[in-house]
Amino acid sequence: MAGNTFGQLFKLTSFGESHGKAIGGVIDGCPAGILLDLEKIQSELERRKPGQSKIVTQRKEPDVVEIYSGIFEGKTTGTPIGFAIYNTNQKSKDYSHIKDSYRPSHADYVYDKKYGFRDYRGGGRSSARETASRVVAGAIAKQFLKDVKINAFVSQVGKIKLEKNYTQLDFSNIESNAVRCPDIEMAGQMEDYIKSIKKEGDTVGGVITCVIQNVPIGLGEPVFDKLHAELGKAMLSINAVKGFEYGSGFEGVLMKGSAHNDQFNEDGTTKTNRSGGVQGGITNGMDIYFNVAFKPVATVLQSYETINKEGEKVTTQGKGRHDPCVVPRAVPIVEAMAAIVLADYMLLARSNKI
Amino acid sequence: MAGNTFGQLFKLTSFGESHGKAIGGVIDGCPAGILLDLEKIQSELERRKPGQSKIVTQRKEPDVVEIYSGIFEGKTTGTPIGFAIYNTNQKSKDYSHIKDSYRPSHADYVYDKKYGFRDYRGGGRSSARETASRVVAGAIAKQFLKDVKINAFVSQVGKIKLEKNYTQLDFSNIESNAVRCPDIEMAGQMEDYIKSIKKEGDTVGGVITCVIQNVPIGLGEPVFDKLHAELGKAMLSINAVKGFEYGSGFEGVLMKGSAHNDQFNEDGTTKTNRSGGVQGGITNGMDIYFNVAFKPVATVLQSYETINKEGEKVTTQGKGRHDPCVVPRAVPIVEAMAAIVLADYMLLARSNKI
Amino acid sequence: MAGNTFGQLFKLTSFGESHGKAIGGVIDGCPAGILLDLEKIQSELERRKPGQSKIVTQRKEPDVVEIYSGIFEGKTTGTPIGFAIYNTNQKSKDYSHIKDSYRPSHADYVYDKKYGFRDYRGGGRSSARETASRVVAGAIAKQFLKDVKINAFVSQVGKIKLEKNYTQLDFSNIESNAVRCPDIEMAGQMEDYIKSIKKEGDTVGGVITCVIQNVPIGLGEPVFDKLHAELGKAMLSINAVKGFEYGSGFEGVLMKGSAHNDQFNEDGTTKTNRSGGVQGGITNGMDIYFNVAFKPVATVLQSYETINKEGEKVTTQGKGRHDPCVVPRAVPIVEAMAAIVLADYMLLARSNKI
Amino acid sequence: MAGNTFGQLFKLTSFGESHGKAIGGVIDGCPAGILLDLEKIQSELERRKPGQSKIVTQRKEPDVVEIYSGIFEGKTTGTPIGFAIYNTNQKSKDYSHIKDSYRPSHADYVYDKKYGFRDYRGGGRSSARETASRVVAGAIAKQFLKDVKINAFVSQVGKIKLEKNYTQLDFSNIESNAVRCPDIEMAGQMEDYIKSIKKEGDTVGGVITCVIQNVPIGLGEPVFDKLHAELGKAMLSINAVKGFEYGSGFEGVLMKGSAHNDQFNEDGTTKTNRSGGVQGGITNGMDIYFNVAFKPVATVLQSYETINKEGEKVTTQGKGRHDPCVVPRAVPIVEAMAAIVLADYMLLARSNKI
């Protein structure tokens, strides 16, 4: 399979290149009877949209979703939801600097090798523009999930790292600043840092933390399809992601078992939550939380040496309007993929018992 | 789906509980014509087997694989390879301490909630014993992969961490010590530490690093099925895993794009390899490398408080023969899952072009 | 899964209701490098289109396909091909006669029961309009298949049945008449019969025969995914289909094995072809041929009694512009599904051997 | 995929060659909490077993199923059910007559072409012996389905055809005779005919009719995974099957729509049932019924000409103990596949609505 479908029962199939006519997708398996708030879908797209603040790319793309099917009299019908987002920014540009040469740490080289040629306009299919389709599907999944609350936020930009635990944070602050960090003071530092990086024509990486609350007990298919394994795959499939950890994560390695184990309360909740809400691949009702590491964006607005198709050295100048740091705009994408996984596993869990 | 199948074209379906009659599986999609060395399959199982050294569980399980189908005159036939490993250690034991109470940070509680009841004998399906089936499938995948070299090793135990880069290590040392760490000196320190932890009846976590070399260019299905996303899911599906990072991983977050980007040589290789051999989800021919974080084993041989089915507090004593640290025995499991993913994507890549 | 995806490696995901904004789909897994003739795609749609002759429905729908992605500089890129066909005939009509009552032998009743409510406008998702998406995917599959020739034709309408074997027919006659029957004389009889049925406001069933030539040897996955089993499913998934048989089919039941067996020629071809080009689920290089039975269209332009949502008897008058016989327009749909199956199994077969 | 898995949520993965060590499979996705009657599983295998009467093959195979996992304290646990049936009849035989030559209308030739070589012992993977694994899975599916009644029976052998509708038959007669035909008189005629065919060393085809009663409304995923399409694929995947029709089937072609339509009663049932219990791919609660056509067994105990691997003509003598007519033993296989499809769609239907 060419890998453009995600999910088993709640499924998103995505299509589209950054500079083709449109991107979009089909959401199949969404249960019937959900009263959909279409404005909420659009508002999630606004959170991902370029041009929303000074620390993100200044490209102008309206990103208006057009829904073709699957909804009738305001409610999902159980049939597939087809949708498209037109690429308005499609005008013929000068792509000569990327047409014949390979940008370092981009997918240009491997696409050419794998497929024999590539749509070189602005990254084509490998562009993060594809994630807009995920945000649409995630916004619908969220409405199906109803009481389950999914909050992602920026917890690190370069070396600037939020040391507070998520329980000490006020999620209502997330959207109050351009970075999407719930700690206002840290958000200010991060924003300043991103601005300084942008001035250099350079980029920087970051970490997004995601917290899922009010999760039903019993989601997750043990063995290969453990809930956290699917969440990990979902996150690692987002452009620029280099790492995923949940619960105690890489830090947990340092602990002894006697200290790491989550002791039970009498109601089945646990006193600590190093398990991150998942035990043996199945939710135990505690909060799910995980971190996602994003590398610095590969497109730097500097001059660099690279090779062309013929394997000759060429010097190129990075140009265009790019994000100096991807994490602020990636927050809604992380939430969307989390929502899709949760919706899918919610449906899968319906077949557990007689 | 109940999640006991992994892979799209090279597929493992696994079955079995730790104390049922047998565990085993079916490998479907293995190409025809591979001359199988059956001893190599068994020797991979020996690497995972309990009782192989003083720092692993002292249980005695011969773990002999019996192959039922799919091989004729020494070669794979293209038909499914069914196999079983009998559970010889199946004698009726005293399970009263886990039958009615829930071990902290195990899957006991969630299985009861999800399925209504559980096979409480030694962890049942949630036991890491299941991974023996993965090792069988991985050993066959390795023989299909031929020139691709997969080497995993222990790079961290608790706080003791290998600081050397994998290129500075001699992989031929991996099997020379009980820890499976290629740096002999560090291996000694790790072994001593595990022994001291064992004496306390406690456990500790660790990290396994895996390096894949001689990888063909062009493996990986962009978007949702990026190669590293599938590798991540494969690793996160292994018992006790809490995190996955590839290439520059979580460290990459700290770098600027201009420094992080891998510059090309004229032959298409790159001067650095922060991409970890994968760009845009597709292999570029450079080494793939990644880290997998394992939490400390939940079973500690100490007394602890927990709850029973009725939600009442009970005090229990951990007993049995358990691993004080899971990473030495998990090395062949990590390699096996890597091999399965690579074999699967090798077959998938055959449909790229006309 | 909600069942809107067909295929394993060459996959069509379809969306859309008959009276929503648009129908369409995503073709995933199409190999890169196919020089696509877009006019051929449109011309296949013309073959399926309403209003093309006097014996089909007189509705006017231009059925113009708009392709959003997956093609660059005239060639497939290996990325998903998203497309839509706008529903131009979407004006607000009077649906009162089907909104609250259930048309006999339609899907109205079961959709209401399954999903709680339904998009009652013109059949919604259960409308055969959905098959236009299949025709688009089939037209692309055909271009991938190149030398494989797929010819479907009408071989029976009501009692009027072509007794000639397909080898006695001239396929170039198929498109010469409105019925799509290669025997001109029989085509005339069938056309007259359909016209007389239409006058009565009634409908009639028919059979489509499909012949696939120049098939490579070795397509088909034995056991559950036998080639003819997948072809059967593909055909049975087309609206109004009630039966499928291949090779000797139901007639073969009457024969003795000694007479039914296909004896070999020295070059591996067979003297007879009762196997229909498939043995043990795998193609043997001989022609594949099969029959598909279509029931009479359920919508009759007569008055009939039925029930409403409340289970009360109501009398209704069938109206609108409907096909008196579905088979002439179903010919390209049968070909399309055959092409999709063949393309899919062509890709699957690439993983047979080392 | 190599096609050895059937089902989406209730899944059977099958393995094994006719003369390897064992055949068997893994049933994944069976809900937890089913109190399994293991004797019923074995008794279904007895119905399929060779040597049970004078009109079937006289081979002796005990066909005892050994279950390895997935059951605890008599109940399914929700984990995969692994099982094997040892091949006791495995002794080294003289296969020289099929090792180097290709039996007509068998899979020998295509396996060699597809995979490069084949396990030539008794048909290997292409042997109908594989269907024993399906019977095990079907027997478990039946116990999950509980109130749903599945009855298959022989309705035709060669030209001898049951003209009665299934509603006129007494299903309790099915197991009373060796043919498995509920009409005792017809059963006698069929039995005599099969005996006479056997004497000639020849074989004959037949039809099995299957009736499914007490089906819940709403099973079936519209569009590609219509219930009858999946049933069709399930049946066409059984060895020797050449055709499938449901409801009015090929006969329905002859009718006019006004006569073919099933008029509603006030309770939502229909006065007639030409739809065969399925409308638009979804069950409407009426009986499901369908016919499956089986060709005459290809192995005839006569002398015949064929070719060897080198493409040279050779004369061979059919030998061994083979079924003169496959339908009596195929009755439990048809029921098993129907049960697997129903169980699978029962689970899928759980995700229809919010």
Automatic annotation (TrEMBL), chains A, B, C, D:
BP GO terms, sorted: amino acid biosynthetic process; aromatic amino acid family biosynthetic process; chorismate biosynthetic process
Record: residues binding NADP(+): R48, K54
Domain of life: Bacteria
Entry-linked Pfam families: Chorismate_synt
Gene Ontology MF terms in the entry: chorismate synthase activity; FMN binding
Listed cofactors: FMNH2
Cofactor info, note text: Reduced FMN (FMNH(2)).
Enzyme class: lyase
Catalytic activity: 5-O-(1-carboxyvinyl)-3-phosphoshikimate = chorismate + phosphate
Classification via InterPro entries: Chorismate_synth (IPR000453), Chorismate_synth_AroC_sf (IPR035904), Chorismate_synthase_CS (IPR020541)
EC number: 4.2.3.5
A GO CC annotation given for this chain: cytosol
Keywords: Amino-acid biosynthesis, Aromatic amino acid biosynthesis, FAD, Flavoprotein, FMN, Lyase, NADP
Pathway: Metabolic intermediate biosynthesis; chorismate biosynthesis; chorismate from D-erythrose 4-phosphate and phosphoenolpyruvate: step 7/7
Residues bound to FMN: R125, S126, S127, N239, A240, G280, K295, P296, V297, A298, T299, R321
NCBIfam families: aroC, PRK05382.1
Role: This reaction introduces a second double bond into the aromatic ring system.
PANTHER family given in the database record: CHORISMATE SYNTHASE
Family: Belongs to the chorismate synthase family.
Assembly notes: Homotetramer.
Name of the protein: Chorismate synthase
Organism, as annotated: Flagellimonas maritima
Gene: aroC
